[in-house]
């Protein structure tokens, strides 16, 4: 059992072994009891025959015994009938022997018995018969009278074997029914585990925010602890997002003040310093706006591990349409309804959030999002009908390790985060001209070896 890890297998093996051992023990007990009952029944009947034989036995003056067979059971007179008696009178070395006609010339081989004793034993009979014999030794005029009456066990053995076969078949049938019943009971007992597994899958897909507490009492503590851990993790995530948003909002006013001071305090002729400061402030402003957009997008991301495009992309598109409400952008989503990306929900939200944010920023009216599940990899394409990127900038974007300055206008915003996430999964990032006229970003992510 040490090598068996499955709970269901352990339960089934234990129950099956217990039932088999129980039925074997029961078969052994019933067979032994039946054999003993048969032997006792025959012993009682033989004792009656001994009593009737003793009643017809006589001893003359010369110490010779004789038996009046007229009143003895007729079965003792037929050759090899299965009913036998043998009477022995011993006086020292002299021995007188009387036998039933059914024995013919055969002599029953019986052990020495102490006078006054009674013994039951199994002895061989004529024609290879198996006999149950009862011996009684009694004193008679200073001599030893030993009377042996035996009966053939063959008919009883046949009936006993027939009963054992019938009993064995019925036992096997009942054992099979009980095994099926126990198998069903085990399946019912572990069904809550399957329910929890399905609940965890729903949690990974973001369909639920916590595990259901409708579980057996033995699993309540585990589910409660998991739910408390999920709650703490979610609270920490919310606090982190809130802190980022609050910090970004807190920096906006000082930056606006610095911009005003720059415009009114610096001399007009100091154009180089003014331009450099304006560029630095613009970069900080762009970074703050990016973090605010990320915080707003993260609020719409489903909690969970696996990324479900049907749900998550719909929320992202709605959020970005609300942010860019002044534009009338049509977003075309092309992927199978049941597709599920075996990658982290937050990472995929980061990738699609940045790519779609760039696309919304520069698109004139159309954005296309395509997801394809190919052999051993997933392909993601995000394209727009914007102005695109010139050839020189396209080469720079395609180079490995290049981090585009996020303060510059264009499609460079957030691409550094996308590149790092894609590289983390061992994927590739490629930029090209879209059929819509703008930029097309294509990501290839290898299929994880273990989902």
Give descriptors for this structure:
alpha+beta, Helix Hairpins, 451 residues, 51% helix, five-stranded mixed beta sheet, five-stranded antiparallel beta sheet
**Share of residues in helices:** 40-55%
Q: So what's the CATH class of the largest domain? A: Alpha Beta
Q: Which fold name corresponds to the CATH topology of the largest domain? A: Heat Shock Protein 90
Spatial gap, N to C terminus: 29 Å
What is the total domain count? 4
Report the C-alpha radius of gyration, rounded: 50 Å
Strand order of the largest sheet: 4-3-7-6-5
Arithmetic mean pLDDT: 80
Order of secondary-structure elements:
HEEEEEEEHHHEHEEHEEHHEE
- Shape call: rod-shaped
Number of strands: 14
Structural class: alpha+beta
Strand content: 15-25%
Number of helical segments with 4 or more residues: 8
Q: CATH H-level name of the largest domain... which superfamily?
A: Histidine kinase-like ATPase, C-terminal domain
Mind summarizing the main beta sheet? 5 strands, antiparallel
CATH architecture of the largest domain: 2-Layer Sandwich
| Sequence stretches where pLDDT stays below 50 over 5 or more residues | 299-304, 400-413
């Amino acid at each position: 059992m040490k090598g068996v890890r499955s709970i269901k297998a352990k339960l089934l093996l234990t129950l099956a072994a217990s039932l088999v051992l129980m039925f074997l023990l029961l078969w052994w007990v019933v067979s032994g009891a039946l054999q003993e009952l048969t032997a006792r029944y025959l012993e009682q009947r033989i004792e009656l025959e001994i009593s009737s034989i003793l009643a017809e036995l006589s001893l003359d003056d010369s110490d010779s015994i004789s038996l009046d067979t007229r009143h003895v059971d007729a079965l003792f007179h037929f050759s090899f009938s299965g009913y036998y008696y043998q009477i022995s009178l011993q006086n020292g070395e002299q021995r007188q022997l009387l036998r039933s006609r059914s024995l013919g010339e055969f002599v029953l081989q019986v052990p020495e018995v102490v006078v006054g004793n009674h013994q039951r034993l199994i002895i061989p009979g004529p024609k290879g018969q198996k006999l149950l014999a009862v011996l009684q030794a009694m004193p008679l005029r200073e001599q030893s009278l030993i009377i042996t009456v035996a009966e053939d066990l063959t008919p009883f053995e046949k009936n006993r074997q027939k009963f054992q076969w019938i009993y064995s078949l019925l036992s096997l049938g009942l054992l099979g029914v009980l095994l099926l019943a126990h198998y069903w009971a085990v399946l019912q007992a572990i069904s809550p585990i399957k329910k929890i597994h399905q609940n965890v899958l729903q949690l990974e897909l973001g369909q639920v925010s916590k595990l259901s507490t409708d579980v057996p009492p033995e699993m309540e503590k585990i589910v409660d602890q998991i739910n408390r851990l999920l709650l703490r993790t979610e609270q920490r995530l919310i606090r982190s997002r809130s802190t980022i948003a609050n910090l970004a909002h807190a920096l906006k006013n000082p930056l606006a003040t610095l911009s005003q001071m720059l415009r009114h305090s610096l001399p007009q002729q100091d154009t180089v310093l003014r331009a450099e400061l304006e560029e630095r402030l613009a970069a900080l402003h762009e970074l703050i706006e990016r973090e605010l957009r990320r915080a707003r997008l993260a609020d719409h991301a489903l909690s969970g591990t696996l990324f479900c495009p049907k749900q998550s992309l719909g929320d992202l598109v709605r959020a970005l349409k609300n942010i860019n409400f002044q534009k009338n952008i049509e977003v075309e989503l092309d992927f199978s309804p049941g597709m599920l990306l075996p990658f982290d929900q937050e990472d995929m939200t980061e990738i699609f959030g940045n790519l779609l944010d760039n696309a919304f920023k520069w698109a004139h009216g159309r954005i296309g999002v395509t997801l394809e599940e190919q052999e051993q990899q997933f392909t993601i394409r995000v394209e727009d009908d914007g102005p695109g990127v010139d050839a020189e900038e396209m080469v720079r974007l395609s180079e490995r390790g290049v981090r585009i300055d996020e303060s510059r206008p264009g499609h460079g915003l957030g691409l550094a985060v996308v590149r790092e996430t894609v590289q983390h999964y061992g994927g590739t990032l490629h930029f090209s001209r879209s059929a819509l006229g703008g930029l097309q970003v294509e990501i290839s992510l290898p299929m994880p070896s273990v989902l």
